[in-house]
Amino acid sequence: MPSAATSIRVPSFAKINLDLRVLERRADGYHELRTIFQTVNLHDLLEVTFERARRTQIELAASIEIPNNLVLGAARAVLDHLRLNARITFRLTKRIPMGAGLGGGSSNAAAVLLALPALAGRPLGGRELASLAGQLGSDVPFFLHGGTAIGVGRGTELYPLPDLSAVSGLLVASGIHVSTAEAYKALNRAPAETAAAGLQIVTNALTTQSESPILGEFQALAWALRAARIPDLAFRNDFEEVVFEQHPALGRMLSKLRRLGASPARMTGSGSAVFGLFASREEARMASLKFPVSTAFPFLFVPRSRYESSWRRALGPAFEHSVFAAASGRSQSRH
Ligand code: C5P
What we know:
The protein is α+β, with helices and mostly antiparallel strands. Helix content is 34%, strand content 25%. The protein contains 11 helices and 10 strands. The chain has helices spanning 71-82, 104-120, 126-136, 180-187, 192-199, 213-224, 239-246, 248-259, 281-288, 304-315, 323-327, and strands at residues 6-25, 31-52, 57-62, 86-93, 148-153, 157-160, 168-172, 265-267, 274-278, 296-300. Strands 1, 2, 3, 4, 5 and 6 form a 6-stranded mixed β-sheet that branches. The chain has a 4-stranded antiparallel β-sheet with strand order 8-9-7-10, covered by helices on one side. Cytidine-5'-monophosphate is lined by residues 30-31, 33, 137-139, 154-155, 180-181, 184.
């Protein structure tokens, strides 16, 4: 049992949904999705101090008050799973706007799932982590990987896409709060049984999923996705219509991003943040000057290779106990 406390500090990156299509409402109450997730370099900072102990004690100090914080739940889930007692202190410096569709809370939770097993020297496999992550929230499993990925099902079934690097953009987070559950309700999607019976409302009377134009378009998009082609691609976000109806200011922000040269410009998740992609960092920076300073965040895509290297740097020697090392066959048991 290591006696000394170990501390690490890791960036917890935000995500955007480059594309988000909501299909039917499932029997479990969740919606069937197709989405393309992308990590961006806007990030919170999470400091973790870990020490094995006889009794578990978990503390969190955050720079601002965080409703429905997932950090503590994630820590308890890991300790329970590993049957481990530990004294853990988290310090969280929030920079990612909350309730904005940027996945900040999910990213923080995934960071805890990645950090604790490595710091404890008790590696958890990818499938175990994915299962814990999925219980914490639909967006959490994506942050175990980062980069560019396709999300299927609830958004927890993930497939990697090739890294898209050096793409610049601008996020505008106005502070408007959109409830995710309410946004899904407002879509008023047909239940799965109706869809399966061939009365598919979303895709207009199609017989099988593979023939659906929505899924056909999504597949075409995934195949065409390359940094060089991004401005020509037809991204969409099914939440825009219902959310903009409630908050017309968000639609106006999207139009403004387009006028400033963004291509594409879309909402992320169920909102309320909107983003635009630009041809260069300088263009994104120039566009940011046209929005109130506290609402505009220029960003770069974070490819999976960089996501992993930020963990390598943060964990130091403990990296060999991380899921990243296990996934690439680099983990060597010393026991
Ligand atoms: O999984 P998570 O806690 O992030 O989901 C929040 C809410 O969003 C769920 O309770 C559900 O109402 C809705 N949701 C959904 N379909 C998904 C993901 C989320 O209906 N695929």
